């Protein structure tokens, strides 16, 4: 039945706090508890959490279900700084009745893995990206390993088995450099391909050190050392 709680600033190292099943409306008593990792505020009378929780960057579990939170955007904005937040409950709040509530939370709080007792799936993350950032979703599905894939907005990326083999770009016989035409290729897709092929290379090499003889072994065995087997992989 608690309606208010005095400041907990003297407990600077406080990590776990259960104050659920009360009638709390104000959270200013948490202003100094930066080390909190689990906070249980469910079943209270909270109507707004603005300015009360954004400093809790270490928070991993937050229960806010069965309160009176109404503004979805304002509530999610308060939680954006919680980069470690993995478990979040917001159900049984008025904001949870928004038709796009779940996808909105998933998109703007990407660290959350368990939302309202339900695991966040990759399909939901893709749907949230298409809904709230369609341009980025289209770019991500149209670029594969530095090469542009022939796809249109709103379609799925085809399997690599179905993609056409890379063709050699055709250089135009005459390049027009007028104010309205500055493309050095007849087909803009060729320009994308050439730019991708000119990217710098990253090279990674690895050796099985278990097969490399030590200095002591070389002195004792007194035989020619076999060449090392080195695996080198290049990425463009």
Automatic annotation (TrEMBL):
Source taxon at top rank:
Eukaryota
Concerning InterPro entries, the annotation shows:
Leu-rich_rpt (IPR001611), LRC72 (IPR042655), LRR_dom_sf (IPR032675)
Alphabetical list of Gene3D superfamilies matching this protein: Ribonuclease Inhibitor
Q: List the protein's name.
A: LRC72 protein
Which species does this protein come from? Cettia cetti
